[in-house]
Design goal:
- With 346 residues, the chain is of the alpha/beta class.
- Among the domains are: 78 residues, no CATH class; 94 residues, no CATH class.
- The protein has 13 helices and twelve strands.
- It has an eight-stranded mixed beta sheet, sandwiched between helices.
- It is globular.
- 41% of the residues are buried.
């Protein structure tokens, strides 16, 4: 996803994350690779259970090692994370890399003030005094647009609105100026106005700090607003990747096409019916053979020899662009055009 002459800040190679359960092995992530450069935003999109959040919790080292088998390589600024000690990861978390969670109310302690929680992170990683940490907390609340930050710093989470709590979470995540920020659907529970404000805030702070951002979502509209590059996940694997313009403007995988056609178009006719993807996401305990999307794919029967159900498609990436699909390019373009016309989308 990055240019060949630029060393990626984060590099993930052939990542596999498998969980042991009473019912068997859950292959939550099954061979994922991507890069992200400093100051860039990578949008990871897919349905629930596609492996988005698991991937990023693995980057942070937040899985139970007793129940999790992890293979592959994760390099953060050249430092290997999968073999790093817990002590090393603790120093990196909140300092060099940080995360904004989806549910701010559940992530914040109800027993401590907002300022105390932000200041605690800052003191742990910098050794600052209580006075210095409080001043830093007020500074960060100011930066994320909290009104009267010198007063609100002493409020508890329940005294903040949903949008204000999310801003406080962003302040906490950025208090140590991390170089990598992982945002796990941070706007899902917010109304569209507050959502737009949070997106603008993240972009402004990225410009100020030069932070690399991984933005996890199931909403392609959000991806269109914030991402530079896009990675589409399905069933624990990457099925398509490229720049935002490439993936959203010219999808090459049937799953990506399905996601786009299930969204309403704000600038089109209001009477165009949506085209939801039939069926349900695959079980990661017993995933389908071949292409994991083939049971739901509108084009699987067009591929000769039943290849979609028998052979796993290879993700071939050239200059950051690629998709994992058995359809030939000319065949795909014709089928996708007919599908879009039938569905009523341009």
């Amino acid at each position: 996803m990055t240019s060949t002459d630029q060393q990626p800040f984060l590099s993930v190679r052939d990542l596999k994350v498998h969980f042991s359960t009473e019912d068997g092995i859950v292959k939550a992530v099954d061979g994922l690779s991507f890069d992200i450069a400093r100051g860039q935003t990578l949008g990871i999109v897919g349905e629930s259970g596609s492996g988005k959040s698991v991937t990023n919790l693995t980057i942070l080292g937040l899985h139970d090692p007793a129940r999790t088998r992890i293979d592959g390589e994760i390099l953060l600024d050249g430092q290997e994370l999968l073999t790093a000690s817990e002590r090393t990861l603790e120093k990196l978390r909140g300092n060099k890399m940080s995360m904004i969670f989806q549910d701010a109310l559940a992530s914040l302690s109800p027993y401590h003030t907002i300022g105390t929680q932000i200041a605690e992170v800052y003191r742990k990683h910098t050794g600052a005094s209580k006075k210095e940490a409080r001043a830093r907390a007020i500074e960060m609340l100011t930066r994320v647009g909290i009104p009267q930050p010198d007063v609100r710093v002493d409020d508890y989470p329940h005294q903040f609105s949903g949008g204000m709590r999310q801003r406080a979470m962003i302040a906490m995540a950025l208090v140590c100026d991390p170089e990598l920020l992982i945002a796990d659907e941070p706007t899902t529970a917010l109304d569209v106005t507050v959502q737009a404000q949070i997106m603008d805030l993240l972009k402004d702070l990225q410009q100020e700090f030069g932070t690399a951002i991984i933005f996890i979502t199931h909403d392609l509209g959000v991806i269109a607003d914030i991402a530079d590059d896009v990675l589409v996940m399905y069933g624990g694997r990457c099925v398509e990747r490229g720049t935002k313009k490439q993936v959203l403007g010219n999808p090459q995988h049937p799953y990506t096409l399905g996601l786009l056609n299930s969204m309403p178009a704000l600038d089109g006719p209001v009477d165009v019916p949506l085209s939801p993807i039939p069926g349900s996401p695959p079980s990661l305990l017993n995933p389908p053979t071949g292409c994991r999307f083939h049971p739901r794919c509108a084009f699987a029967e067009k591929v000769a020899g039943g290849k979609c159900s028998s052979a796993q498609p290879v993700l071939e990436v050239i200059d950051g662009r690629g998709s994992a699909c058995h359809l030939e390019t000319s065949q795909r373009d014709a089928l996708f055009a007919d599908y879009a016309a039938t569905a009523g989308h341009n």
